[in-house]
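Re: the request from the purification team.
They wanted to know what the chain is likely to look like in 3D before they choose a buffer screen. I agreed to run a prediction and write the result into the notebook, where they can find it.
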Amino acid sequence: MAVTRLKRKDRRNKTVSRLEVKFLKLATNIEKGSRSQQSEKDQLAKNNAVLAALSK
């Protein structure tokens, strides 16, 4: 059997769904005491520190 190429729409759907899953995994809430502690080197933590300093 020959391997068929995905049509453009199907290729796009495949890519979009993969990126959505990646985004949803990254968007999970990090709670106190959870196994996935947020790193201080994380860009989000740095941004929050700058915002906190500016709001004082």
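For the purification team: The chain has one domain: 1-55.
Please add any questions underneath this entry.
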